[in-house]
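Team,

Forwarding the record for the chain on the shared tracking sheet. I've put the sequence and predicted structure together so nobody has to dig through attachments.
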Amino acid sequence: MKEQKSIPTSKVQRAAKFVTTGVRIGANYLKHYTKKVFNPSLTREQLDQDNARDIYNALSQLKGSALKVAQMLSMDKNILPKAFVDKFTMAQYSAPPLSGPLVIKTFQKYFGKNPQEMFDTFSIDALNAASMGQVHEAYYKGQRLAVKIQYPGVANSIQSDLKMVKPFASIILQLPDKDIDKYLVEVESKLMEETDYALELRRSIEISKACAHIPHLVFAEYLPAFSCEKILTMTWLDGKHLKEFLETNPSQEVRNQIGQAMWDFYDFQMHVLREVHADPHPGNFLMREDGTLGIIDFGCVKEIPADFYDDYFAVLHPRFLENEARMHEIFYKMDFLLPTDSPEQITFFVELFQQMLELLARPFRHETFDFSNDGYFKEIYEFGESLAKKPEIMNGKEARGSRHSLYINRTYFGIYSLLNELKANVRITRPAWLLA
């Protein structure tokens, strides 16, 4: 992929890129509806492909939070048109990398040295480039290392980028502004954390150490001496990303073992650590022929408040829906129901959230769950599709749901999606109180 020699960092430069892209999207719509006059049966497929191409090309040049949003959206396969999923998935693996001179400049700024002076060898060409940074290979005293370098200007542009990316998110997701606003507030707080490599270094060491006892998991060793606020160095982890791994045609036993390791990893974080690796996209997992799973990138970690934890997991109890008073109490606490709701709204939203909870909690109703069951994911897709068309949702004046649920729901459905692609059958470990 062609190297990128510079990144627009000023608000004016970045705004100009968004404006130019908006003009292109407008032209795409004009072209689409002109064709539709002569061919009323024309679908949105080509329009989606054109918009996905133009939006991704712009975001990949801007990098940072703009491209990160594309990466996050690519995980929502039940919401996004296929053209956007296909294009935005590239943000998980292969954005255009920064040129060598910019990499050297970053090292000189934070270490006062060139990377070749710090390591025995350092590959100036990035092996992987994603939304917030890129990874280079290095060796030090015979040990192979991965060196992650953050793109310049990422942290300073988050707030303004999210304001400018909002119209594109509205176009893609077809959601009202109130829902986009609530989503982006939580996204902004997590993106700010992701730009703090000192915080990521601490979390990486703490969480990988706490989870080291879980069978079939492998973690990198993080090296503080070669890390700083914009550069993070760790030992190299071998393995393949999901798509490449599946091309090797692994056995069902290996699929199940990797799937189990993934489930146990998240289960332990949720219920014991009360903080969770909240970015479960394929680029953050390395799978191996022996059934072990490598976990990388602890930049996005969601800490779970105690009161939210109690309410969120209470709804997973098999008898939760039988206690109407308790159900209403928690629905109000989690902002599913609002004090201003009319009796008709209460009836509508209670039924709606009961359906949503049944889908989310279904794996927890079983001792083992076969995530290869495409019928289950078809139900999730159809529910999301019907939700977007309900006037009560589109025309509502208030966003619903705790902001904390955004990343927790995203994490669970992200895990479910990965396990579905892996076609894994896993044992569902459940806390004792869930079985009571």
